[in-house]
Fold each of these.
Amino acid sequence: MARPRRKNRTHLKGPAKGETEENVPKSFVIKSGAVTKSITQLVRDTRKIMEPNTATRLRERPNARLRDYLTIAPSLKVTHLMAFTLTDAANVHLRVARLPQGPTLTFRVNKYSLMKDLVNSSLRNVGKSPGGEYRNPPLLVMNNFQQPANGSALPQLRLMSTMFQGLFPPIQVEKSALPTFRRVLLLSYSHQTGCISFRHFTITVRPHGVSRRVRKLLTTTGTVKVSRKAPNLSNTEDIADYLLRRAGSETSNLTGQSGYDSMSETEASEGESDTNAIELPEDYVGRGNKKGERKAVRLIETGPRMELRLIKVVEGLVGSKKGEGETVFHEFVQKSKSEAVSMQESHEQRRAAKDARRAEQAANVARKKAEKTKSKPKRKSAEGEDDEEEGEDEESSEGDLDVEGLSDIDPEEELQRLRDRKVNFKGQNQAGDDDYDDEDEDDDFEYEDRVNQADQQEDIDDWDADVGAADVSSEEDEEEQGGNESSESEGEAPPPPRKKRSNGKK
């Protein structure tokens, strides 16, 4: 059986009601440099958290740099950039930058778990998301980001809280509907370790007043599918054996109380307690979740899970043309006031020198452009003059022809003269052959006669070797004389005789 097609309702993405494209933050979640497959999957899982205001199907080129994303971000109205990198020491770093000016926060990912790792684990309250909850941004819950009661103040806490709050649109309780709140992103800071716990949950609503085993048998549409196996009822004689038997007990005796849960234990379960029970103010996702019903709210962790530690804070953007700027905070490098002042002065000097070089380059570019614009009209005028001169030369060549080396004979007169000669020639042929001079004819055919006589002499020499030369010669002479007389009487030149070859002689 074919697998059913999963529809991605991309047309439902976008800003919520009452929001516009300008005030909704958008983000890029990318990987920079060479990373492992698990980090690539972590990038994809983080994109799901940032849905729907992120580039889910963004594909990074292997040779792409951070500057490329910083260049294209303003045209797409991207406000934040989250980049995962892998250092030479095999440490995973997460950079969170506010576009287009900064600052940039660098976190070290001490440990992380992917979505598939949490689903495959045997932990409770962990499962897959049912789908459809990524059409709206998650609820951001920040815990313990206030200043410590004892000790020095930590200014980086306020900066981190402001940065994380800017990743998601603000909550508008009056304009937002209850079914739009489907996910929760929990960020919890620990003052003892200095780390941030990054966890992602899905909100589920379950029936209240029902035990866990009864809820396990219920099939509710729209709830999270927990990673558990279906209940095994093969060893039970009645449904009560499964519903009332204490966990780990195999007895099926209904009369004994040792193998069954008491009513107090069932009521004291998490599903029966009133600590997480509420009355729904509006209709919620799922069957039976109507307004006014008493339901139990649970959080199911879908992942990913990360533990972050702030390492560095710079006032600019890492990878930009202007540079990352001054370092505001560093976890492992502490500077005194004098060192900070000297460092700031050196930064200002570098910045001034850089601005001077840019101004000089801009002036050189403007000067070269001005020179090009000045030279273009001259070139055009010179080309126009050359074209005019060429046109005048062509006109002059057409008007005055160069007659040097040509004859003065008129072609029409020459043609008429040739026609007259042809007419005269035809008249002479009609008059007869008597008008021709015999001497002229002998001059014309003198060369052919000499060739014919040489050939005939060779044939006679060859023939005399076998037969009488007198008989043959007399007959051939008579034939040649008769042929000459007939040809002279006709007035036409006889065709040249073929050359005979005998005994290898030409």
Amino acid sequence: MTQPSMPVLESVTRTWPDLEAAHERATDAGAALLRSRTELLSVLTRLATYASARDELLRSLRAVAGAPWELARTGVPQLSRISVVLPQHSALYSYVRDCLVPALYCDEVVVRPTPRIRETACAVHQIISRGLDPQLASRIRFTDAAESDFMPVCAESDAVVHTGSVEAGNRLMTGIGDAPLFLFSGPAPNPLIVGPRTEPAAACRTVLRARLYNSGQDRRCPDVLFVHRLRLNALVEQLRAELSVLTVGARGWPDAVLTALAYGEAVEGAARFLAAHTDRLVTGGGTDPERMQIEPSLLVFDEDPGFHPPALAGPLFCVVPYEDPELLREWARNPRELERGMYASVLGEPRLTGRTLGTAVVLRDGTPFDVEDGNQPCGGYGVHASGVRREGVLLGRPLLLSREAAQQRSVITGPLR
């Protein structure tokens, strides 16, 4: 094992991850993912479309490959324990980002999947752990403890990572006290803005790709589309035409764009939203709770900054026209949107010049799926979408566990590698 090239003051009393071992273990983990890819895709398509499961696999490979670089860049110290609540979607990518990569610098990673994803997440862990370095695999421990029993475990952790609803996150954060570092990722509307300088066909492809990721069941999907009036009619007509010919099939079909939704609650929420806005429907609107399906639905609302949709799941396209970008700024300044700002995708709107829209990070000519990197801070500045609590104060900012842990415990940088 190579020694740090330049020990600094804190190295005398601190323990640092072994980067040489991290390189070897990350390489083994990547190989395990590749060897098990067929088995993993079979498990993931219990809840996800084949296309999104395959994308998860590739994103996970990239996160594992970049893990040693992440550790060296952030200077994260060796941690004793982190506790993780896995979300109900993205079983593999969430496992790799929140459990496997942290296991490279943490002695124990205690994982509590949400009930809906438990079976899939446990299967993913079992498949991958077979190919991991035994010491690394032993650091990741799944628990089926109830939320109340999990709280004491979290309270004794260096850090807690929670991805899920605002209510569940607040309940856990309050119940464990102020001592642990707490990272919280919740739902966000992620508006997609189609400006006057956007070519409608290109905008339509971007909208479809972003909204239909895993049949619309991802927290990064855009829940609202702001479309400039110069492009409104053309985009609506193109979307109407495209939605009528989407491939519907089983989750395991490689070419299926739309599948049954994974959870009854998602179907019920979409059905309630459609029933409340039948006068806005351009096409679609059908629901089949028994088959867990939502018809691709296009709705056009008034030019109004007061439209604040709930977190939506399914192939729902909510269009709000605009002319003056001040409407977008007014919408983003609403207290609710300030709390849940994550991303704002901006296509062909040069009048939006800032790096943020409210608390949402502006992505120019791209979507969250284009830019998110598992080894870099992700998210925006809304405290309910991307929040970190340290010393009792909740702050909103893009999150990366290793960076937050390094800042939480660092007085001076660790060894140079």
Amino acid sequence: MVQRRASDLHGGLGVGVGVSGGRCIGSRRPDREGDGEERLRRAGKRREAPSSETVGERRREGEEDAVGVGVIRYGIVGVGMMGREHVLNLHHLREEGALVTCVADPHPDSLALALQLHRSLLHHNNNSSPPPQAFSGHRELLDSGLCDVVVISSPNMTHFEILMDVIHHPRPHHILVEKPLCTTIEDCRKVIEAAKKRPEILVQVGLEYRYMPPVAKLIEVVQSGTLGQVKMVAIREHRFPFLVKVNNWNRFNVNSGGTLVEKCCHFFDLMRLFAAANPVRVMASGAIDVNHKDEVYDGKVPDIIDNAFVIVEFDNGSRGMLDLCMFAEGSKNEQEISVVGDIGKGEAFVPESIVRVGSRKEGRAGVVTIKAEDKRIKYDGLHHGSSYLEHLNFLSAIKARGSGAPSVSLIDGLYSVAMGVAGQLSIEKGRFVTIEEVLTG
């Protein structure tokens, strides 16, 4: 058995996930959190971004606003692998007015990597703008007045405290919070209630799989009525194990919320979106069969499951099924999604980025294959351009100054967590678990 201490492995604060009921949208595997140079080399030379001095001048003219005109200043809380991914995506949105002005992380190595990445991006683009201001904590970042938008990409168990601090801060900040919204339903509810009292703040949850081009195309097909009334949604994710995170926080359910919350909230969100209905009850079977069984951190053995089958029943009679395996590196596609209606069927494949659509009437001979792409994407990143489109969408909502709304709401975030919590409880209890049970319990 491999004995490891929490301090032995270095990475960064990582992973991650508005108040609106939107119904919106290939990948190499990073080996550790410290990577990013390959992505950096792929970054094209683009127009110079505005300097933070210019931003500061603009802010003095309207300090009460959550966003000014032209440049929108971003602060990133948690600059591990996913936090640095946000730095890269926002760098490619600088012509849209996005500018990272500050970062916060209690982990010195993560801060150093984020600042190094930023310097490399500026050098690559012959840009002389100053680096972001670095802070060891999110409260110092909020008090600095340096940002209009806060991206929360810290470990799951920290989301609640940071969200509440941002929402309650005297100065309004728009929020993009990585998935899951929180690790417990109780905390999700508290965030929703707090956000209701700050209507001037936009909050979007980072369920960006909606924006992957093949998934977005399948959403479009389903919502066009081509498949008829959706009856079944099947999602398969066969992938690699969880990556190493700072202090190995993602090896334990108490920190992550459990695999079905941490990883699978994406798929529960998509099921609910495709079904156009809310979940009623969940049945799951899962276990730790292969991964992390020989690992010990500070005397504790990881308890996160590495495979599961989950069945979800919805209030309109449709059903969803998740097939998760996290020791399936030998897969052509990481995600395969099937949506079957009463008159047709649609499928999406990631990272192959194709969609297949057929009808019962025309049968196999009538199946059409579509190559899914979105020409707006300037940076593919770790999630096939979905994080870029997520930011582009949220940026548009911010610029709309209240006339637009984020496409992924806090309610969407709550349900995606509730379905995961129900699945985890079902595995533990060996029975169906109702959504009412977990929402009211």
